[in-house]
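// run 5 | inverse folding | seed 20
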């Protein structure tokens, strides 16, 4: 698969790399918890640091969706392993940005 083919599949105009949970890389319906801006396309091409593409306005919703109470009362539909991996992934963005970990992530990782 070429880079162009890999980048051609999107959900909400974003590639799979913009999501904390990617069930099936070939099925955008399984991608959950978007937390990057569209500038991630530039990062994937090596033209921008991927950490600069984190969408800090969307991050609280992604974090909340991992908690038992969920985001707007809805927890992400994912296995315990997927939730743990997503929490580790999101926590890494907080650490790299030198931001304090939200309680939800701190409890999971």
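// decoded
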């Amino acid at each position: 698969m070429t880079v162009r083919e890999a980048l051609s599949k999107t959900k909400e105009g974003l590639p799979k790399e913009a999501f904390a949970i990617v069930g099936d890389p070939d099925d955008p319906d399984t991608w959950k918890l978007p937390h990057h801006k569209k500038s991630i396309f530039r990062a994937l091409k090596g033209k921008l640091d991927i950490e600069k593409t984190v969408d800090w306005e969307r991050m609280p919703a992604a974090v909340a969706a991992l908690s038992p109470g969920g985001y707007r009362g809805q927890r992400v539909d994912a296995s315990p392993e997927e939730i743990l991996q997503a929490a580790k992934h999101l926590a890494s963005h907080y650490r790299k940005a030198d931001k304090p970990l939200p309680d939800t992530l701190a409890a999971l990782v």
